[in-house]
Amino acid sequence: MRRFLRPGHDPVRERLKRDLFQFNKTVEHGFPHQPSALGYSPFLHLMAIGTRSGAIKLYGAPGVEFMGLHEENNTVMQIHFIPDQCQLVTLLDDNSLHLWSLKQHSGASELREEHRFTLKGPPGSPPSATQITAVLPHSSREVLYLGTESGNIFVVEIPSFRVLEDRTITSEAALQRVPEDYCNRRSCELVEALREHPKNPDQILIGYSRGLIVLWDLQNNKVTHHFLGSQQLENLYWQRDGSKFISCHYDGSYTQWPVSSDNRQPEPLENVVPYGPFPCKAISKIYWQTTKNGLPYIIFQGGMPRASYGDRHSISVVHGSQQTAFDFTSRVIDFFIIFSSEPTAEFDDPSAMVVLAEEELVVIDLKSAGWPAVHPPYLASLHCSAITCSHHVSNIPLKLWERIISAGSKQNVHYSNMPWPIDGGTNIAPDPPQRDLLLTGHEDGTVRFWDASGVCLHLLYKLSTVRVFLTDADPNDNMNTLGEDEWPPLRKVGTFDPYSDDPRLGIQKIYLCKYSGYLAVAGTAGQVLVMELNDEDAEHVVDHAEADLLQDQEGYRWKGHEKLKTRDGPVRFEAGFQPFVLVQCQPPAVVTSLALHSEWKLVAFGTSHGFGLFDHQQKRLVFVKCTLHPSDQLALEGPLSRVKSLKKSLRQSFRRIRRSRVSSRKRRGGGGNVQEANAKFDPDALQEMELAPVQRKIEARSAEDSFTGFVRTLYFADTFLRDSSRHCPSLWAGTNGGTVYAFCLRVPPAERRMDEPVRAEQAKEIQLMHRAPVVGILVLDGRSTPLPEPLEVAHDLSKSPDMQGSHQLLVVSEEQFKVFTLPKVSSKLKLKLTALEGCRVRKVTVANFGSCKTDDYSENDLAVLTNLGDIQIISLPFLKLQIRYPCIRKEDVSGIASCVFTKYGQGFYLISPSEFERFSLSTKWLVEPRCVVDIPEVSSNNHVHTRSGVENAYRDLLLSCKRGKQGGTCGEHCDRAVASSKVGCMWQNYLGG
Amino acid sequence: YCFGAEFRRFSLERSKPGKFEEFYGLLQHVHKIPNVDVLVGYTDIHGDLLPINNDDNYHKAVSTANPLLRIFIQRKEDADYSAFGTDTMTRKKNVLSNVLRPDNHKKKPHIVISMPQDFRPVSSIIDVDILPETHRRVRLYKYGTDKPLGFYIRDGSSVRVTPHGLEKVPGIFISRLVPGGLAQSTGLLAVNDEVLEVNGIEVSGKSLDQVTDMMIANSRNLIITVRPANQRNNVVRNSRTSGSSGQSTESSLPSSTPNILANFLQGEEESDEEDIVIEDSGEPQQIPKAAPTNESIESLTQIELLHESTQNGFLPSSEMNLNHSAGSISMEYEVQDPDHKSLEDGTIITL
């Protein structure tokens, strides 16, 4: 029973482990899933986004990010910054108000929830009496005005949230002296909008939903003006000087009202239906911005003609004769205008419009001609086409980095040059330690190159493979080609486009060699493209080769999708990565593994049928190996063939899947959404589930199982395959059925590289008797160090591998880790995972961990993600478990599937279709936001932060963790605790010195 | 009298093996032990040590020889019955540890009920002495049989006695037995039995999928501890008054049983050292264990084994090279060159 005991505690090793390993979730990249509210502080230049799962995220200058999470996980309905303060108030859909503040701790600002409050009416009053519909933080910074469904406006003090009952503005008081007939028609109205007078803080404008607008004098507690609107009110906006305001309405009209001291019941100045005369949709928000030249900017959301454009998500900008209706790819959540906020400035002079749509953030430069879009430095919509795979490359050489940026800049010419207008706060994080690239493959056949070095995940360059193929997409299908006199003057903006023209274009595997600039990408229909970086546009023919992976196996018929049709003749490619050869696997099944060796100029690829090796220098197929078990019909037919309808309407089906994925996938910790999603379940389906209890078949794996031939991993190594005196290039492949194939390669020397063919010969075949899928193969050199990457040694970035001592082979299956000797294969060591813990390996990578204490110590370990969402670090070469961290909820299958590790102990996984969570396992390499938001007045009050305060906060965090455990959904709560204050790690750092 | 450790290699007509009696006589003749009662065993294709004591299993043995039939002969009175039916060759550690600890085994009385050496075990109840009476630990011998394990598990709930009284807790239960499967044919498992442990690891707190994965990962040597739904067929022990768990001091069974458990677990440890390598499109071979250190019993050569075995009644082993008459047996692999087969590292040809 000894082996069940924990390994003996070696205090030296334990101390070293503390210096090497540490788990932190550091930052969320990408676009928040299901945003529900937007706020902006012109004072702080910070933007806040709330989500349906109760998260609140603040963004300023690039690198300035804060995140908080409401414990209730309820939808954030409204966000309001307190004027001239580092504070904001959120309203959730459970009618609770939350006060958040940015405070400085140990040099960096943190976002923390200070107070929460739920408005309570007198006993017996209906809930609508206190249902908050409008929030106005008063410029005095002392009170909030809360408009409710009942029409009453409550006044609460901040930060205490004490209700000042004597200052409540009842609807009765507001309705005094309103003409009888108007009053009768419109009783029982809810407060739709509250706006403070821009010049006189003692006056607020109250808009009731049925159209009545009241100017209220706070000093005398009485109405000064009544504006008798006839249309259902949507929103209000003051003009800068306070002499006029605009109301916008449900019928698609807006009205300008004068405010003068003599007329207490003014008539509207003008009433406009901008997209009339046919019935229009509501204008839900409007801005009226003055400029020096006299022509105002009128910016409004909605108002489109119902019948023909009722489905558009638009915001119109009108400036003199210029008018554009920006047409967004998804529903507009909210928007704001950045304009001159100096109280002394005479005009608004709007500079930019920031629009939060459901799937992306769009910023429009209003100062440049043509109103171009501004390229956001963060909040990228990762899911503009669904992410199908990702690949991380650490430590990119400067040369390649610059070339990629240069290729990308040529793609971004249509963006505005305006500096990013939301520039609050200061990023004080140290510069990223190195240049890292995250490559994401997408369903539409594109590969996006992201700068993943720092806190802001920024798009550098987008590569499309579509050009190589002929697709059904109509090249003239361009939404933007609208004629001059089109009305309404719609203009598509944004990049979110989830609909793939052809799902076969989807990218499945990516391999980039950072030294040579060679890139291999492989897709859903068995296509493998090898590309080279070219700084110029070029037109050339892409060479084709076919790899028949079934070889001479007879009697099979592929029932899956067909291969993609290729374009004949030369194809024009823009600067960047340009494909020069296409290897088409036959049958055209999805490519399941890919490896590129840039030094030998070889690319290896595998599908569910077998694998092949292609010489991309000579453009010649070296060999193919069929791994298919003869009885495995399922693999042969292709997984898609089982769903007949799919073939018929492949595209629609994929869209449907996507849509359901988007709606059902929730962000982590989104307890509220779970309930919501559960509630949506068909009760019949639930009943069915109860009738047939879930059961699992217990059966040993056998050679006859389906998909045993599925090639899971490919690996190039220069090692001792045949005898211990000569090493040679080799290719290793691991299958789903637990088989490892090793091929001995003969690559001609450089001078004869083009003259002699590359030869390959099978040297070994290892069958793991537990038959679990092989997910990783690795060769360790004589010093037990993993072999370096191709060209790494040539670039002086790695020591030459030790070819004196004997090499070892590490085979990682889903169930076990095994070390074998080479060249004679004998088993040396193993670590069983599944048999002992019931978890399986999902992802495995070698990572280098440096000590945070000394610069001269680092070691290689395996970073492993299991199907339960745990991360384990396992030592090399002795396969000892070092440490284990819960990372992803085990139910979050897509999160686990999307995880990528970096070479330096960091990682990324999708927490929603549009967001990557970044985590770090290393004490040394930690990329996390660290920033300061300065505000002179406030910081003087909050400067004295005692250590005990920090400790209290940390204790709160721990408590919330504990509570979470009791609640049973521990992972979720821990997640939330970490998320609700990612500053937690900062505290730890602080406390630890 | 002590037998020498030696090989005898001789040929036999594959198509006409003859009768067991003749073969027995031949063995006695070849080994020059005409008057000693011996047990004859052979290793089958799965590496199991199986008995030869009648015409049927003799014919079976000859027909499965591929191409060598390796025979083990033990003096009957010294025979270690427990060796039979276990996959002797592939899990040498297990067998050897029995063999190499003669003091353990000499004390152990063999309670021979029938002729266990005539059968290949498919399952066994183990650790009866250390488990509560309400529990049953069942070992399913998947190796060497084509039968599927053949059962399903499901989620459920059971009632536990805790310091705070009765408590309903989630549990894993057997939900279905496949007719003709190993699980059903043993009769030791039944629908609604609660699964408590898989190969010594408690399942409480683990999800259905986790337990499934653990069982499949251990499927070649699955030991599951269940609380049978039907508690009437439990083993009754007079030494124990209640079903409390823990080690009994006055166990009626030999005190060496914890060693058996250890052996089982060790056996499990080694049970998948059966990975196979094919070098240069040659013969599939079992992957040996590397680094012949002192802890590695596996690396003992066969010669040593034979030396040691004399104490335990092992007779010299025989390897027969069968004359395969043309067409009588189709063989995928050519006759193994006896010299090529490296006895030094204990490599076994399994195909």
UniProtKB/TrEMBL annotation, chain A:
It comes from the Eukaryota. Residues 272-372 form the Lethal giant larvae homologue domain. The keyword Ribosomal protein does not apply. Belongs to the WD repeat L(2)GL family. Interacts with GPSM2/LGN, PRKCI/aPKC and PARD6B/Par-6. The complex is enhanced during mitosis. Interacts with DCAF1. It is found in: Cytoplasm. WD repeats lie at residues 69-110, 433-451. SUPFAM superfamilies: WD40 repeat-like (SSF50978). PROSITE patterns: WD_REPEATS_2. Part of a complex with GPSM2/LGN, PRKCI/aPKC and PARD6B/Par-6, which may ensure the correct organization and orientation of bipolar spindles for normal cell division. This complex plays roles in the initial phase of the establishment of epithelial cell polarity. This is LLGL scribble cell polarity complex component 2. It comes from Anser cygnoides (Swan goose). GO terms for cellular component: cortical actin cytoskeleton; plasma membrane. The keyword Cell cycle applies. One of its GO terms (molecular function) is myosin II binding. GO terms for biological process: cell division; cortical actin cytoskeleton organization; establishment of spindle orientation; exocytosis; Golgi to plasma membrane transport; regulation of establishment or maintenance of cell polarity; regulation of Notch signaling pathway. SMART domains: WD40. Keywords: Cell cycle, Cell division, Cytoplasm, Exocytosis, Phosphoprotein, Repeat, WD repeat. Pfam families: LLGL, WD40.
TrEMBL record, chain B:
Residues 137-230 form the PDZ domain. Residues 233-259 are annotated as: Disordered. Residues 1-76 form the PB1 domain. It is found in: Cell junction, Tight junction; Cell membrane; Cytoplasm. InterPro entries: PAR6_homolog, PB1-like, PB1_dom, PB1_Par6, PDZ, PDZ_sf. The keyword Cell division applies. This is Par-6 family cell polarity regulator beta. It comes from Anser cygnoides. The lineage of its organism: Eukaryota, Metazoa, Chordata, Craniata, Vertebrata.
